Amino acid sequence: MSEVLILIIIVAAVLLFFNREWIKNRFFPEKHTNYTIDDQFNSDKREREKEIDRLLSKMGKNGVNDLSERDRKRLDELSKM
Q: Cβ distance 79 to 51 under 8 Å?
């Protein structure tokens, strides 16, 4: 009985060893992977849009006057892209 249990443990260990990449990818997939140039472009575009939204929400009631000089320059750069 104990010999069968040891054999099962060895077989399970060997199967886990040879399938470790599949197991890793299945349960712990890589996040934020850009597979194509289009994916990279779309990802960059989303980041630019988030930054523009952050700067626009920072403007508040007084408009551009609420932004620092650095923020105004960055908003100008982003609007030209």
A: no
For 55, counting Cβ atoms within 10 Å of its Cβ (0-12 exposed, 13-18 middle, 19+ buried), the class is middle
Contacts of 55 (CB under 8 A, 6+ apart): 67, 71, 74, 75, 78
C-alpha to C-alpha distance for 3 and 52, rounded to whole angstroms: 66
Contact between 74 and 47 under an 8 Å Cβ cutoff? The reply is no
Spatial separation of the C-alpha atoms in residues 75 and 49, rounded to whole Å: 11
Nearest to 59 by CA among 77, 46, 72: 72
Whole-model pTM: value is 0.51
Q: Is the pLDDT of residue 34 over 70?
A: no
